[in-house]
Design brief:
156 residues; single chain; 5 helices; elongated; 74% helix
């Protein structure tokens, strides 16, 4: 499995933002106000992925306490890497969705409902970006460290 590519994530953001913006042109007046529930959900997921990444990286680099010095299960690391990649892609798509909302309601920000939706959309966009960063960090933490002896041989 390869690491998530920034170009793919950016493409997901742009495609989702344009698609949502286009859909909202005809449907926005029929939608209820956006709820705040996505903001804490995305932030808690980001926090969970950061904690999991730090814990996993410490285990991979043998920085764990002596009493829990069990070897890392390779299948667990692969599962966490897959979780990081899937989270990065899903969070990038959510970033685009709520960025589409931001772009759509921005011209009508002086009205109460679009102003509320703008604030919620900006907060959710920032939360989705935080989850994207946390997912990329989790992916990074799943990398296998280079062998110190191989590095010494490469220097010679």
């Amino acid at each position: 499995m390869r690491a998530s590519r920034p170009a793919v994530l950016l493409a997901l953001v742009l495609v989702a933002a344009l698609a949502v913006w286009a859909l909202l042109e005809g449907l926005y007046s029929q939608l209820p106000p956006l709820p705040w529930t996505a903001v804490p959900t995305l932030l808690l997921l980001a926090l969970g992925e950061i904690v999991a990444g730090v814990h996993l990286r410490n285990k991979i680099h043998h920085k764990a306490a002596a009493e829990e010095a069990r070897p890392v299960d390779p299948l667990s690391v692969a599962n966490m890497a897959a979780l990081g990649k899937a989270s990065a892609h899903a969070a990038a798509a959510l970033t685009g969705v709520f960025l589409g909302f931001v772009l759509h309601v921005l011209p009508d920000i002086d009205l109460p409902t679009p102003r509320h939706d703008f604030i919620v959309s900006v907060a959710t966009t920032v939360s989705a970006l935080a989850l994207t960063g946390a997912a990329l960090f989790l992916e990074y933490c799943c990398r296998v460290p280079k062998d110190p002896e191989a590095e010494r041989n490469d220097r010679r």
